[in-house]
Each structure stands twice: as structure tokens, then as C-alpha cells.
């Protein structure tokens, strides 16, 4: 087990593999509202603590009300979102917040830094996670703990992200967990 890896769960096969590891936390991505109850029960039975990515639950609105419902109904470890209102609601409900930002150019970087400073999330997930320079810059300018995610598929990329200041690495590449 690598303490800086957060397995990203996209399917039941991922969840079954996760249950056979020593990892206790993960990020739940790409699920459907009709599967959520079963998935959360499976995780609770195995003492797994998920961060639920609200924006990627199909069939559910991606807003603060969905966040409130998920937190009250399932008590996840935390909430992941790209939306400020969702992060604010999750903070108010007392769960760990992960604000996900996509850095595609210098303007997106500047805007993200401004938003991070205003929101003060518990973590910031930077995509793509292979953007070592950006990870370091966001961490230095905001003081936020950074999670690197997206396009990470090798041990070397994981290590570069960690060396750049990432606290965690999210990856759906099962070979890295």
C-alpha cells in the first residue's frame, strides 16, 4: 500500500479489487444514482471511507442539495466537486472537501488560484496530475494541500507529483494501487 495513493473507483470491478487491498479511502467516480445505495453499503460493510464526486453521479443534480442528501444519507468521508456551492455546502456539513480544478492554460491557473483562496477547501485536486509545475505553484500560492489526478499511469509520474508537493494521487490505474 502506498499512503499517497487514493484509488479512483469507476466500476464494480474496481470496487472489488479495492476491497482486497489495504486501502481504506478512495474516490468514487462515475456512478449512477440507482447504484449508489448498493455501492455505499458495500463500502460501509468493509469500512471503506469514500470521497464522493458529486459531479459524476449520473441521474442526480450536481448542486448543493445533492451534496446535502449524499452527506446526510451516506456519511462519506468527503465530497469532491468542481462547483463552489457544493464545496461550501460540504464544508458547512462538516465533511472533508476536495475542490477539483482543470488547468488547461495560464488563465485557468490564475482563476483557480483565486477560487481556492476564497473557498479554502481541505484539498485541491489538480487535473491533469502530470502538471508538476502547476501542482507546486498552486500549493505555494494558496497553501492548499494538493491532490494530483488525471493522466497518471506510471510510478515515475506518481513520484514526480509527490516530489512537486502533491499530498495524494488519485488514479483509476489499478496497477498503481
TrEMBL record:
<keyword id="KW-0319">Glycerol metabolism</keyword>
<dbReference type="GO" id="GO:0003723">
    <property type="term" value="F:RNA binding"/>
</dbReference>
<keyword id="KW-0805">Transcription regulation</keyword>
<dbReference type="InterPro" id="IPR013785">
    <property type="entry name" value="Aldolase_TIM"/>
</dbReference>
<dbReference type="InterPro" id="IPR006699">
    <property type="entry name" value="GlpP"/>
</dbReference>
<dbReference type="GO" id="GO:0045893">
    <property type="term" value="P:positive regulation of DNA-templated transcription"/>
</dbReference>
<dbReference type="GO" id="GO:0006071">
    <property type="term" value="P:glycerol metabolic process"/>
</dbReference>
<dbReference type="Pfam" id="PF04309">
    <property type="entry name" value="G3P_antiterm"/>
</dbReference>
<dbReference type="GO" id="GO:0001072">
    <property type="term" value="F:transcription antitermination factor activity, RNA binding"/>
</dbReference>
<comment type="function">
    <text>Regulates expression of the glpD operon. In the presence of glycerol 3-phosphate (G3P) causes antitermination of transcription of glpD at the inverted repeat of the leader region to enhance its transcription. Binds and stabilizes glpD leader mRNA.</text>
</comment>
<keyword id="KW-0694">RNA-binding</keyword>
<protein>
    <recommendedName>
        <fullName>Glycerol uptake operon antiterminator regulatory protein</fullName>
    </recommendedName>
</protein>
<keyword id="KW-0804">Transcription</keyword>
